[in-house]
Amino acid sequence: MTIEVSRLPPEAASGSVIRASERSLPRGRGLLTLVLIAAFLWSILQIEWGGDLIHAGGVAVLIDLLSGLVRPDLSASIVRKALGAAWVTLTFAVASISLALLFAIPAGIGASGVLIRHAGARRWTMLLGRAVLALMRSIHELVWALLFVTAIGLSPYAAILALAIPYAGILGRIYADLLNDVPTAPLRALRDAGGSELKVLFYGRLPLVLPDLIAYSFYRFECAMRSSAIMSFIGIAGIGYQIQLALDDLKYRQVSTYLLALVVLVVATDIWSSQVRRAMVR
Amino acid sequence: MTDAGAGTIAIAAGNISKRYRETVALDQMTLAVNAGETVAIVGPSGSGKTTLLHLLAGNLATDTGSIALNGRALAALQPGREKARLVGIMHQGNDLVANLPVVHNVLAGRLGEWGLLRSLVSLVIPREREIALRALDRVGIGDKLSERTSRLSGGEQQRVALARLLIQNPAIIIADEPVSSLDPIRAEDVIRILVEIASDESRTLVASLHSVPLALQYFSRIIALRNGRVLFDRPAVDVHPIHLDRLYAYDDEGPRIAVVE
User: Fold this and answer.
1) Which residues of B touch A5 (CB under 8 A)?
2) Which of A23, B108, B119, B261 is deepest in the core (most CB within 10 A)?
3) pLDDT category, A53, cuts 50, 70, 90?
4) CB nearest to A4's CB, from B79, B84, B260
5) A98-150 pLDDT, tens per residue?
6) What does the pLDDT look like over B102-139, one tens digit per residue?
7) Is B50 in contact with A191 (Cβ distance < 8 A)?
8) Helices (H), A47-75
9) Is the minimum CB–CB distance between B223 and chain A shorter than 8 Å?
10) Residue in chain A lying closest to B80 (CA)
């Protein structure tokens, strides 16, 4: 038999952040669910299930497309073209994610507010940092692309900047959340040993979140690859551009080859990322 | 300033109180600990042990009263090098950075001494590796230097925390239930090393413990807390069963204590 007392002291850790959302979550949840279900049902009723859902001859095209997709054109010239386009798409993705990382790491650390001990200053830094990151990612990469193409023309820089900005916003936000959400006991021990917040960041927070941080960055790199392919649809080179050309020529077997190249890129990234993670966990 | 010889007072707490809303955790406690003493704080759960240690470590502010460590007012000490030289703290566990190698967790004891650049460089090429190795040897796990910390057992992790404390080299060590998460055999090992480390350099040690036998065997002085007050404070050799019976008897004050199976 043990004696338990109801006055254990609260955590003495100073830096823990309590989020408002944790407290106000359940309230209004049921109502929201009802509204969402109603909206879903309503949207189904709005569809006209008539014959013009698919255009005349659409079925024939669909069959053509499918039969092309299952038989990719593997002739040497097309494969070479697919590899070249995949390479371009890959370089765009690498360049833009690198640029995004350069911005997102310091911005994420800033927006997490972990370097500031003064509570008021920390709150304002977090607010400002997160607002900037939100602005960057609330505009889709295609919209950024259109803006940049208008401003600087059809250049690779337009595509790279257009990708880098929203990705920096997304990555920065996630990094900030990860850094805020670490166990406090190891951090407290580092402070007790005389570590400043900056040292605590490098000896505590960053090592604690590193596996998650790397895994998420790889996932975003995958997404950047897909987005980079999409960039072609506004006229910037890459695998999407080849897909578009082949579609215009009704060469569905070539479309299939290019799609395959894209899949290979994404799967290769996935394999790479899981190997890095395995090496880290050992 | 830190070379407090025998007889000088390392910890002086006068009339310290702490309350959490309506509950009084510590009630007007006055306490003096001489340099080089090894003090065990015992008492039932909620008697105020953890609160007292957090106050002594400066991690919590007192409501009333003041604390001086080696003659310096604790409230005026800024976190950083100076404080780290004066007082080091050991917790129940889980306060290591699990996915760093052991060597960095040990060298974290130097963070108060090192500048930022040196600290950062050390994460790539460990500085003062020999000192870390010597500290780990001292606590009996010299072979774990390059091991990933998360792969160590609970007892080994507490030894790493001890090595970190050793490297921090404070004049006063505060240990809050340092072995509460360990089985009895490992608990005794860790306590033995902790007391040895303190005695070697005539550091002052104040540790809270659940286990009275361990406290009686290894510490020079026992302070028993109950309901936020000192019930008795005497040399370990003068503690008798009658004292302990009173310490752990059921409380008749009612609402503050719930009895759990």
Assistant:
1) 44-47, 256-258
2) B108
3) low
4) B260
5) 999 999 999 999 999 999 888 899 999 999 999 999 999 999 999 999 999 89
6) 999 999 999 988 989 999 989 988 888 899 999 999 88
7) no
8) 58-69
9) no
10) A194
B-chain residues near A4 (CB < 8 A): 45-46, 257-260
Q: Which residue in chain B is spatially nearest to A8 when comparing CA positions? A: B46
> Quick one: which H or E segment has residue A205?
none
Closest partner residue to A7 (CB to CB) among B25, B109, B113 is: B25
How far, in Å, CA of A230 to CA of A251, rounded? 19
Backbone angles phi, psi at B39, to 5 degrees: -115, 130
Would you call A196 and B108 a contact, using CB atoms and an 8 Å cutoff? no
Q: Considering only CA atoms, which of B76, B64, B37 is closest in space to residue B206?
A: B37
Chain A contact for B132, CB < 8 A? Answer: no
Nearest C-alpha neighbor of B160 from the set B133, B131, B188, B139: B139
Q: Which two tokens stand for residue A83?
A: 């590899």
Cα→Cα distances A199→A213, A252, A278, Å: 19, 57, 27
The two three-digit tokens of residue B9, written as one number: 């007072």
> Which CA distances in Å does B255 have to A126, A131, B23, B227?
42, 48, 10, 12
Nearest CA in chain A to B254: A5
DSSP A202: I
Strand B221-226 to B87-90 pairing: unpaired
The closest CB to that of B111, out of A2, A186, A190, belongs to A190
Q: Residue A56 in 3-state DSSP? A: coil
| Partner residue facing A7 (CB), from B46, B85, B112 | B46
Q: Which of A5, A208, A214, A277 to mutate to test the interface with B (most CBs of B within 10 A)?
A: A5
Phi, psi of B259 (to 5 degrees): -95, 125
Lowest-pLDDT range of A95-109, A145-159, A169-183, A201-215: A145-159
B23 pLDDT higher than 90 = no
- ipTM passes above 0.90: no
CB atoms within 10 A of CB B36: 20
Are the Cβ atoms of A5 and B259 closer than 8 angstroms? no
Residue B168 and residue A194: Cβ atoms within 8 Å?
A: yes
Identify all chain B residues contacting A1, using CB atoms and an 8 Å cutoff: 259-261
Secondary structure of chain B in the HEC alphabet? Answer: CCCCCCCCEEEEEEEEEEEECCEEEEEEEEEEEECCCEEEEECCCCCCHHHHHHHHCCCCCCCEEEEEECCEEHHHCCCCHHHHHHEEEECCCCCCCCCCEHHHHHHHHHCCCCCHHHHHHHHHCCCCHHHHHHHHHHCCCHHHCCCEHHHCCHHHHHHHHHHHHHHHCCCEEEEECCCCCCCHHHHHHHHHHHHHHHHHCCCEEEEECCCHHHHHHHCCEEEEEECCEEEEEEEHHHCCHHHHHHHHCCCCCCCCEEEEC
